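Take a look at the protein record below and tell me what you see:
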Amino acid sequence: MSVRFAPTWAVAASAAALVLAGCGPTAPATSDPPSEPAMQESSPTVEATQDAMESADAMAEQTQAPVVVNEKLQFTATTVSGAAFDGTSLAGTDAILWFWASWCPTCQAEAPGVAEAAAQLPEGVTMYGVPGNSDQAGMEQFVNEYGLGDVEHIVDGDGSLWSTFGVPYQPAFALIDDTGEITVIQGSLSTDGILDAANSLLEG
């Protein structure tokens, strides 16, 4: 049996065909069209903007509201420590005035409770003492003995301040709220009673 070989030119042609088939250009990969940019979240609604503006206006009105100065607060005096005191400084604030006398047994008994309450007052309420019917030395001794040095005490040497607030005798408390309203409580108040009064001023 004889073996026949393909002509050289045929082999070359076949090889070239294979090369061309293997190296032919590939079709470009298709890509999705560019997507539209994502929509950003919308700005605050008109209603929310209006609410914010109304809230800002309300705060501005409160800030600009005139301070009411009750005529009872139009006085000047001196504190036990010797400093000048202007009663109009109490206008627009929440404050408690405690009317006492150094020789008064009831005032002496309630003084420790007053000192305790003064140290626990809620923020925004201030307590002041208003000693009367006593000499300077007696007032100073009372303040030191009962630990009331952190409370400012407004001296009412001639009793005119007590009379202005309608206090006939000690002890008594005057509650002053930031609208200028004044309420006088005649008699003693416990520590809890003073703190309750302070909270009522803040709520009023």
